[in-house]
Amino acid sequence: MNYKKNLNLFVLIFSIGIASFSQSLVVNDLSTEYKTDPIGIDVNRPRLAWKIESDVRNVMQTAYQVKVAFSKSDLMSDNELVWNSGKVTTDKSVQVVFDGKNLESRKRYYWTAKVWDNMDNSSDWSEPAFWEMGLLKADEWVANWIQPDIEEDITKSEPSPYLRKDFKLKGDIKKARVYISSFGLYEAEINGKKVGDQLFTPGWTSYNNRLQYQVYDVLELLESGKNAIGVVLGDGWYRGNLGWADRKNVYGEDLALIAQLEITYSNGKVERIVSDESWKCATGPIVMSDIYNGEIYDSRLEKPGWSSSGYKDKDWSGVKLVDRPKDKLVAAIGPPVRKIQEINPISIIKSPLGETIIDMGQNMVGWVRLKVQGPEGTIVTLLHAEVLDKEGNFYIDNLRSAKQMLQYTLNGKGQEVYEPNFTFQGFRYVKVEGFPGELSLDNITGVVIHSDFAITGTFACSNPLLNQLQHNIQWGQKGNFLDVPTDCPQRDERMGWTGDAQVFSRAASFNADVAAFYTKWLKDMEADQLENGSIPHVIPNVLGKNSVSSAGWADASTIIPWNMYLVYGDKRILDEQYSSMANWVSFMTTVAGEDHLWNKGSHFGDWLFYRPNDDNSGMSAVTDKYLIAQSFYIHSTEILRNSARILGKEDDVEKYDELLKEIKQAYLNEYVTPNGRLISSTQTAYVLALEFDLLPENVRKRAAERLVENIGIYKDHITTGFLGTPYLCDVLTEYGYVDVAYKLLLQESYPSWLYPVKMGATTIWERWDGIKPDSTFQTPNMNSFNHYAYGAIGDWMYKNIVGIDLDENDPGYKNILIKPTPGGEITNAEGEYESYYGTIKSGWKIEGGKIVIDVSIPVNTKARVKLPKAHLSEVSESGNKLETIKYMISKQSNEDVIIELGSGNFKFEYPYKLEQ
Ligand code: BGC
Questions:
Q1: Which protein residue's CA is at the shortest distance from atom 9 of ligand 1?
Q2: Is the CB of 499 under 6 A from ligand 1?
Q3: How far is the CA of 493 from the centre of ligand 1 (A)?
Q4: Fewer CB near the last or first residue (10 Å), C or N of the chain?
Q5: Containing H/E element for 766?
Q6: What mean pLDDT is reported for the chain?
């Protein structure tokens, strides 16, 4: 807190010193509920944020004003404002809660912001941004739920139904929106053009509790006079195969559609074209589609012009009106899935078995676009695999029952281009069968799809293996952020495994803006939480009510909201998830009973920890499952207590403080000797004890030593599974063993992060030894090559190698910690993180006996910069001696120099010896 006082003082000194400079202060990058100009939200009090730019240092916002109106011109002329905040004295520029008149369905709200700063400057009003409301009440859905009236055998994947309707416009129109959702997946077209660019809509949620709808602006797609709308449906998660063991029709047996096209004519009259019994239906070229198995597409069955007016649908069937709930319809929250990038293959391989295999050069998720020409009726089959086997043949055993197959039948009418609709594959290699003529690289293009999050992080350093590791982490995220955070994208799982999601959530938040993505998923978690507080293993829960409550998995319910609070300063997520968090803790408390030990039930434990083949070697790093359970029980309770404090729930703070004392004591009694030795002598046991603060002060140092000794026993190898891995290097760094952390990180032999990199991985593997040193595989039952969990180390790499971190006491990067920590013979590193306030940069280079550290801090934030191994008298900043710069507070702290500063770009330089 002293630090804050000091900072205020230096802000004052600096302001006086610099006030005479002329400067520009600009407000930009306005966002609403974490999105730029969202259409179709249903948040009654949306949160607004903006970024501020200035060309001088040390700028803090001192006040803001926000105006909201129904049009840009009203905004400019202050006419009929929906909200005028007036000048509010505060440094708050993110998570600003709209506090105007009640928001109305369908209305678009334009807004602008203006700020004042500590230099006595004020900005102009920003460029206006907007948000648009969806349908806030169930009875505003005048459209009906309709269902294709065709015969289906729901025991297998049936052809996709196409639904259509002609309509006529009676004059000029000024506004047109489609509000649309489905049970199953939908893709809509108007007059032959796709509506929007989203994929896998309406997304995957706890369908029986929350079904998302999307809103599209379709003004541009409409024509005067005759028009048509068409929608094709796919089985998707709703009734396709989902989960192993032949699970199908998990949510229901029948696909259904609700669509409401609202047209506003120039004279203000509104007309609605809605899904009703007048729609027609037929099947078409999508003969089969399934998330896991792929798609069979017969282009001879295409119905050209089916979504345009004038199409002859006389022989089409009708539709049935069905009674499905409208009160479960909710506006979409997360970023939509889109086509994000394309990849060209790098080679065509002829395998020893004679297979023709295309190598995309990257394990990717999405599909390939096929370009082909040949005789009618030719069938081209594309099979997808992540790896080739030791001999170089196509390997699909690890996909288990997932077929990952695209099959395209040519119509023979010239050049044909095919992309699938309702399926995705996880693959690097594509086996091509039945291709007419000579296959060339031009025939195949990789289409990468994922939730369209904004990329927020960059990382690069002098060690190419670490750069590849970071690349693999990012691709693991791309591949497994497909509307829900999945374990893997290829075998018959692809589900929202909670444990995987929680261990990766901090690293994920460096790479990309994941606030809205997790906000959505957490709502499904709450929806699927059991009455007794248990949290299912996967969210949305498709495994049933007995697959619940594993330690470290279910704790995603506390850990992820907390991480979102830390990264985005998002108190609302804590508030909205609070009862879910509390119910989870209460479940553990009930099960633990009087002795306060949560030592019942089945748990995954430290999943996939190091276990050599020869289990008698005594080297298997098994951590007692109930020790782990108690550790997470305490951790979740602590998060809940801290959340209660932040939300001002004083009674709960007291209650959970009490509980914490009891369950920590129970942990000590049961699992720790008086000298701090844990009953499980594993890296994970010690890491959890130290990271979650479970041990008395007097034995912590010794426990850290034991951890390091254990790492020594394994000759600097990591032995942790999913639960210990995320915190291992953090704990080592915290307790002064950054050198050991680097040794583990840079270890190239199994088990280690770089072993897969050395083996040619382009994504993070599920297991430390998915491919063994002799090039044979781990068991096909569980061997994904695209599982992000072990990529959790990305968090440590950003925080320590690049050196960008946050201050838990002033979260959301309002107070930034810059702490580059050279080691491992790395000579330079640089990275950026796009925070809600703007770009944070940290980069360092050791050369010629000195280190140069470049730092950028966005306006309206502060930073504490730690210069490693520096002497105050030897440090310069942008050529000036640090000691002489009055507006930065610097001090020597043991080996380091600590500087407190405000916004701006800084260049520090001082003598530095690279340790060998
Ligand atoms: C998934 C994991 C998951 C685990 C539970 C696996 O099949 O792929 O990543 O966390 O089951 O132990």
A1: 487
A2: yes
A3: 9
A4: C
A5: none
A6: 95
> Of all atoms in ligand 1, which is nearest to the CA of residue 787?
9
Distance in Å, CA 487 to ligand 1 centroid: 7
The answer to whether the CB of 483 is under 6 A from ligand 1 is no
Sign of CA dihedral 688, 692, 695, 698: positive
pLDDT digits (tens, 9 = 90+) for 304-355: 999 999 999 999 999 999 999 999 999 999 999 999 999 999 999 999 999 9
The 3 state secondary structure assigned to 334-395 is: CCCEEEEEEECCCEEEECCCCCEEEEEEEEEEEEEEEEECCCCCCEEEEEEECEECCCCCEE
Calpha distance 182→255 (Å, rounded): 7
Cβ(451)–Cβ(335) below 8 Å: yes
The structure tokens 């009708």 sit at 318
For the annotated catalytic residues, the residue numbers are: 493, 766
- Count Cβ neighbours within 10 Å for each residue of 752-790 and write b for 16 or more, e otherwise: bbbbbbebebbbbbbbbbbbeeeeebbeeebbbbbbbbb
The answer to whether the CB of 497 is under 6 A from ligand 1 is: yes
Asked whether the bond before 202 is cis by omega within 30 degrees of 0, the reply is yes
The dihedral formed by the CA atoms of 660, 665, 670 and 672, expressed in degrees to the nearest 10: 110
Q: How many whole angstroms separate alpha carbon 564 and alpha carbon 570?
A: 6
User: Given a cut of 60, is residue 400 above it in pLDDT?
Assistant: yes
DSSP annotation string for 51-104: EEEESSSS--EEEEEEEEESSHHHHHHT-S-SEE---EES---SSEEP-SSPP-
Q: Report the C-alpha gap between 904 and 858 in whole angstroms.
A: 6
Ligand 1 contact via 364 beta carbon (within 6 Å): no
> What token pair was written down for 731?
């704990």
Instruction: State residue 616's pLDDT score.
Output: 72
Which residue has the CA at smallest separation from atom 8 of ligand 1?
487
Q: State the distance from the centre of ligand 1 to the C-alpha of 104, rounded, in angstroms.
A: 43
